[in-house]
Write a structure and sequence with these properties.
about 75% helix; globular; single chain; mainly alpha; 10 helices
């Protein structure tokens, strides 16, 4: 039975389209900083408004992890275009709310599939102005399916499954591990060089996450 809902589907679509258009005018580093910054902001504001009260060590962990992210992307920072920055901020907000809506998921795989299917009408409408510029290739379609239906679909399902065990604050901070995971993937699959910056940022981000996740203060 199909699950998911239209509101979550709209947030998922909003994240994807804002993210895609934003990166036409942003560097990878600036885009990552804006995106993850607004994801954290959205989820932590929601957590506070819902009555969550993060402990002092959780706040310290958040600051350390965000500092690690800034340190990781700092060499690529430059003054970003306003429109692209706004779009990336909207992508972060949309992903924040999409994540928050997954906390109550009882069937993460079915909910993710349902949410993906509900993005289709929005995608079709958004594509109409560009219909005459579109070109498709076999390789492009294969990679689109692998990155979307397989990698993203499975990844989002696993994330939804984990959310029920996390507070909004912890879920927000855990997502700061994504740039580190991407960096490690670059080392393994793309033979990218291991830098002291990646090592230092990893210690900061993972250390900050550790303070948040393993904090036992009542």
């Amino acid at each position: 039975m199909q699950r998911g809902d239209w509101v979550s589907g709209l947030f998922l679509f909003g994240y994807a389209i804002c993210f895609s258009f934003a990166y036409t005018g942003l560097t990878t580093a600036v885009g990552a900083l804006i995106l993850f910054g607004f994801v954290q902001l959205t989820m932590i504001v929601f957590a506070l408004s819902s009555g969550e009260r993060p402990k002092i060590l959780e706040w310290i962990g958040l600051v350390i992890a965000l500092g690690g992210l800034v340190y990781l992307v700092f060499p690529g920072l430059e003054s970003p275009p306003v429109l692209s920055s706004i779009l990336m901020a909207c992508a972060g907000i949309a992903w924040g709310f999409y994540t928050l809506r997954g906390k109550g998921s009882e069937n993460p795989l079915a909910d993710t599939a349902g949410n993906f299917l509900r993005t289709v009408p929005f995608i079709v409408m958004a594509s109409l102005p560009f219909i005459y510029q579109m070109k498709a290739s076999t390789n492009g379609l294969i990679f689109a399916v692998l990155s979307g239906a397989v990698a993203s679909g499975i990844g989002y399902s696993v994330w939804y499954a984990a959310l029920k065990y996390l507070t909004a604050t912890r879920a927000a901070v855990l997502q700061l591990s994504v740039p580190i995971i991407a960096g490690i993937g670059g080392l393994i699959f793309l033979s990218e060089a291991l830098s002291l910056r990646l090592i230092g940022a990893s210690f900061l981000i993972l250390g900050g996450i550790g303070l948040v996740v393993f904090n036992k203060t009542k």
